[in-house]
Amino acid sequence: MRKFNKTKIKAALLLLFICSGLSAQDLPTIANTFLGSLSKELRDKTMFALEDSERFNMNYVPITRQGVTFHDFNEVQKTAALKLLRASLGEEGYRKSKEIMELEKVLRIIENNDRTMPDGRPRRDPLNYHFCIFGQPSANEPWGWRFEGHHLSLNFTSTEGILSSATPTFFGTNPGIVRSTKYKGKEVLKKEATLGFALVNSMSKEQMKTVLFSNVAPNDIITLTKRKVGELEKVGIPFSKLSESQKATFMELLELYLSNYEENFAQGFREKIKKSGIDNLSFAWAGSLTPGKGHYFRIHGPTLLIEYDNTQNNANHVHTVVRDLTNDYGEDVLKRHYEKDHQH
Asked: How much is the CA Rg of the chain, to the nearest whole Å?
């Protein structure tokens, strides 16, 4: 069994804070700098073909994964890896990522969990987050990359040197609110919960007939790890049926999710959602209308799905995901890219 190295954990988490001041830069250059810092053995573990089925192997539970982790890196490699992560996310997304990783230390304490993965590493491990790159990072050709581990699955696709897709985006927290240890009171996804409850509890009795589609929340996000979302039941209240104050809360919640993304990508995603019609978005709720019992909400429209579920561990275990219904894993932009190449 590999020893749980507290010094390495502290060093990696310190680097997360050091890198938090980085702004979005030239993504292919940053990715190639990261790859150039690796030995051949580590590069071979990191790189996959863009068409490899591994790119769609999204998961957010503790399993054995492909790719290199912080356990494999020296300090130079850690810094290069985290620069890639920071350049791919907005400030909020980066904050949530590092705090979700930190929660692994909380789980290890409160569960008194010494179980190990098949590779001998601890089951609860803030260093066990994996980097995979799909294709060769390039300003001209498409490529992608993924950062994934327990309660994180961040999937990126780049075409023409910029992010063209950053979904599926999964964040999870367990505990949702930390009840003990030195992290007591920590709630990584607090704003999502606060705005969701504020919106649902602002509804009139008549509106609630449309908003509340079930008195029992599903026990997880409905889309799970599916490559394609497929058809979902049309439930909830349309944006157009909200009052002005409710619309403001709805938009604040939507913007909170968009703030997870790198600024330029967030702006493009925002414009895409608006183009498909804000009035075509709906808000739906299931389960308890107060914290402490299982609850679920979603925002759903022609191009967008946001799910938030808090039911497990006595409603103190959150899963939330963003899906681009037309371009998860960059499939739409890649299709257009290859069609353009074929025409040439």
From this structure: 20
